[in-house]
Write a structure and sequence with these properties.
This protein is about 30% helix and about 20% strand. By secondary structure, it is α+β, with helices and mostly antiparallel strands. Helix 1 packs antiparallel against helix 3 (about 105-125). It is globular, with a radius of gyration of 19 Å. Residues about 90-100 and about 175-184 have low confidence and may be disordered.
Length: about 180
Amino acid sequence: MIQSRRPIRLRGYDYSTNGAYFVTICAHNRICLFGNIANAEIILNDYGKTVGQAWFDLPNHYPEVELDASVIMPNHIHGIVVLHHDDVVGAGFKPALTPDNRRHGLSEIIRGFKSFSARRINAIRNTFGAPVWQRGYFDRVIRNEGELNRIREYVLNNSTNWDMDRENPDALMSQRRPQNKTAE
């Protein structure tokens, strides 16, 4: 029996709306494909550098995208994507959108990033069509300046917390998640 996936998007929210979004995208099966952490510093391999090139190239493909803090970890990437759609003058209260100025939603931008980077990584490792990324991604709509600053700090300090990161396959299970205690 195929289990349906639980929706993780904010219900009723338009993800093409101007604003800041925190995203986490994990490698397929959470394999440490992009590098490793040594002395709390990320050391990217060629695949990780390729991920970085694809990430920082997003504004060239999507002019409404501005990138804020980001970090590539051994098996995932965290980043803040800011969307700035310039409203065009149109009839009525809403801008008239044409194919040249249509709004790209967050999911389309992340899909593009995953496709661009996976194609390049698979060319390097000669594994055309092999999965690089897990299906889906985590996102959070950033609601205010305080939250933006807390997320920036989390992103920028992520490599220093790798030993206890829930995405780190080598972290001790007892350090990553609180244990449920049962009454005796």
